[in-house]
């Protein structure tokens, strides 16, 4: 018992006074647990098996000669938000290479579709010190930019050791995470906010919080998602899709998660009472779940069609539900379908997804009440974007919208924040 107490005290003192050395010492002990995590993610198809070595810091592409900027965007939302950033860097510094890392397969697909050879894409390594060191030594970034709330201590400490400037852009931390961070800072003092050269956040509240957590040179800028370009539209696919939907009334629920599809399917059955031929389109956040969501529909005695099969083989969509099992096609749907429900917001624990995307097409948009990820954005668009929670409210919104809504320009097109970000980026790029 005494030995255990001594070990715990030693660990506490180490975390308090030499956290960098302790984290490096402990990280090899975490490898077996990380390998279990990787195996689980592979089974769930959350990792790309052909590129899994990238998660160990092993590169799959050759580093180009010259200066390189590293941008880390975790998932789809962050990836889409950095596209204007990438374009502006290439405009200001055309000879500089950009390494863009993500954690999710769906984000990697967006990088391929939206950015192509403008960037080098890799999956980010897990925060094991030897893997981190291997990654940084190979890519040798001149600048590192982390998007929103990615705080990997081994990575940040090592970048700092190598005198590589680190920026936290669009810093956004939930109230729950902030409370945890303040606890850690108070009793352990190991938060790496002081390692950032600058923190760019989206609100005065977040500025104050990050400064209390140790950040310096904190600036308030508009949310990067305001700067994002409109989703691309494949005109050929748009025409084909319009022909397949034909004259049917339709609505779309985008970025759905478990628990939300059930609500959407129940809403569909209620909507059918008023609009018998209604087409409900579901864009699943993780398309690998398409079979699971299809079963939810068939179990409720609804007919289901799958987007990829429909686009290849069908003249018209006659089923109750259309499930989107591909990435990169939402622009075509937003051009055709006026009524949009943005999910990730109907159930707690996700925080919502980007409702600015359909609003930029002048769609009629609804969201749920759980929009923690977009609290700073919603006040700007609340006149164009209503909140719903109950299934009956979803049904009422859809019925009224598909029967009455007519698109008119306006919405967020009047909100132009790009100039502020361009000026800030000039300051960041001066270090090159």
Describe the structure.
- The chain has 432 residues and is α/β, with parallel strands linked by helices.
- It folds into 2 domains: 42-222 and 420-429, 3-Layer(aba) Sandwich (Rossmann fold); 235-414, Rossmann fold.
- It has 19 helices and 14 strands.
- The strands form 2 sheets. A 7-stranded parallel sheet has the order 3-2-1-4-5-6-7, sandwiched between helices.
- Strand 2 (97-102), helix 5 and strand 3 form a beta-alpha-beta unit.
- Helix 4 (76-92) crosses helix 19.
- The radius of gyration is 23 Å and the shape is globular.
Name some characteristics of this structure.
432 residues; Rossmann fold; 2 domains; 7-stranded parallel β-sheet; 19 helices
Radius of gyration: 23 Å
Helix content: 40-55%
Structural class: alpha/beta
Instruction: Average the pLDDT over all residues and give the rounded result.
Output: 88
How far the N terminus sits from the C terminus, by CA atoms, comes to 54 Å
The CATH class of the largest domain is identified as Alpha Beta
Number of self-contained structural domains: 2
Report the uncertain regions: none
Largest sheet data: 7 strands, parallel
Kindly report the CATH topology of the largest domain: Rossmann fold
What is the fourth-level CATH superfamily of the largest domain?
3-Deoxy-D-manno-octulosonic-acid transferase, N-terminal domain
Strand order of the largest sheet: 3-2-1-4-5-6-7
At CATH level 2, the architecture of the largest domain is 3-Layer(aba) Sandwich
What characteristic shape results from the CA principal axes?
globular
Note the total helix count.
19
Q: Could you tell me the strand content as a percent range?
A: 5-15%
Strand elements, count: 14
